[in-house]
Every structure is written in C-alpha cells, then in structure tokens.
Amino acid sequence: MLLSVYLLLWAAKLTWSLLPNDNNTSVAGQNTQTLNQSNIGSAQVKTNLDAIVSLNLFGDTAAAPQVQEEQITEAPETKLNLTLSGVVASSEENGGVAVIAYRNTQQTYGIGDKIEGTSVTLVEIFSDRVIIKNRLTRETLMMEGLDFDEANRQRERQGPNVSRNPVNVGPQPTREVSQQEAQEIRQQVFQNPESFADFIRLTPAKNELGIIGYKVAPGKKPAFFNSVGLKNGDVLTELNGRDLSNPQQALEALRILQEAEELDLVLLRNNEPISLSIEIPRDI
C-alpha cells in the first residue's frame, strides 16, 4: 500500500502544478521524445499493497535534507503576450519545468532556456508563476487564470514558500506508523501540496532530445521514500502507458490514477528500464 500512497503523493504534486484551476485542465503535447521501452528486460515486480504494518516513515539514521524558507522573487507582472499553461516546480536549484505558449505555440522550458521566438529567458519556476528575464529586467509570468495581486496577497497570508535549496541536518528519529497514519500523510499532501517536499523531491530528467521524465530523490523524511523501493536518482518515465515527458499525457496519467486499480510504472535505474506492476486496494 505504501507505494500507492507514494504515487498518490506524486500525483498530488503534479496535479497542483499542472492543474492550477478548473479552467486550465489541458496542456498540449510538447516536442519531446518518447522513451523507447521496447527492450525492457528487467524484472517485473508484482507488489501486494494490502499489507502495511511497521514502516519508518519519519526518517532513519541517515542524514536527511532540510529545506530553508525563501520569499518568491519580487518582480512586476510582465506585459508580454506569453501564457503559462503549467509548471512542475522542483525543490532542486535550477530544477523544474514550465509550459509556456507564445503565438499559439506551446513549448516546455527549463531554467536558463530562451522562450522560442522571443529574447526572454526563463530564470525561476514556482508553483503558481515563473520569473523571466526580459533584457535587463526580471518580470513575473503568472499561471493562466491566476490574478497577480490576489496571488501575492494570498502568499503574504500563508507565509514564505518552500525553498529549492536543501541543506543537510543530523539524524531524525524513527518510529512505526499505522495504515491510518499513512493515509493521513496522503491526505496532508492533497490538502497542502507544498508539503510534498517532505517526502520526495522531483527534478526534470533531460537528455540531448529534451525531458525524458522526472528524477526522484528523498525529502527530509527519507524513510518514506526508501520504503517504497525507489532509489535516489531513479527516473520515472511512464505511468499506465502514458509518457511523462509529454505534459498532455502526464495529465491523462493523473486522471487515470484517481480511479486505477492497478498501476504500470516504468522507471530508469542506472540507465536500465525497470517495469513495476502495482495493485491498489479499493480503500486507498
């Protein structure tokens, strides 16, 4: 069951990033390459998710990353004719991706990328906005459908956001948790997607052709990450046959995940594809 909880946490993060409001529920496919999984020769792992008895969700003797707080960069709202359709924010410095449209053409961009057809460069990515550099000026491009002033007022009420720069802290205590507590963790992340970084950090994985998926790393509560069988550096590439390098297919995967009874996952570990088949109990 724990792995299914993890995947739902991951879905909550991407849902928060890619579906900021009810009027923005689709992102066009991008010019990214689909990873060829036809030669998958790794073990097929069938996981029974009904049993969860004693899991060290809140850390172990290994050092865990602790996040710092920072304010979002203050920059005036841009007047350029750009549309921010979706983001995948990352806890890693220079991580994250943004789906930006210009002249009816959508592309996926990372930090430092130049927006096609413009002289603008993407410099920062947050959950509800990105910061762009327009010549010598930094400007804010809000998520489509969000009001710049209202979003800033809401952030002031909620306090600073989570930084993308982790620092190491000492060991954290361990304890056993019940199935109910695991479900409460899942609910916590759905209610507050920013707490996702407590359990896992996501960074877009790229090759020379573009984004191929999402690299995973443990958050400041690493035992949760370790218990699901993932390893630092694994790259999630497919979920139920949907290519996660393509924002539109990633959205389709999230919709399927809400009602799926079984998950078929493909990930890269040391550049070798691994296929996981996961049963989800109905009461998850």
What is the total tally of β strands?
17
Q: What's the CATH superfamily of the largest domain, by name?
A: PDZ domain
> What class, by secondary structure content?
alpha+beta
- Distance between termini? 8 Å
What does the radius of gyration come to?
A: 19 Å
Task: Indicate the CATH topology of the largest domain.
Answer: Pdz3 Domain
What sequence of helices (H) and strands (E) makes up the elements? Answer: HEEEEEEEEEHEEHEEHEEHEE
Please report the number of helical segments. Answer: 5
Architecture (CATH level 2) name of the largest domain = Roll
What form results from the Cα inertia axes? globular
Largest β sheet strand count, sense and barrel closure: 7 strands, mixed
Mean pLDDT: 66
* Uncertain parts: 15-70, 161-178
β-sheet strand percentage = 35-45%
Helix coverage percent: 10-25%
Total domains: 2
CATH class category label of the largest domain: Mainly Beta
Keywords: Cell inner membrane, Cell membrane, Membrane, Protein transport, Signal, Transmembrane, Transmembrane helix, Transport
Subcellular location: Cell inner membrane
Domain Type II secretion system protein GspC N-terminal: 1-143
Pfam families: T2SSC
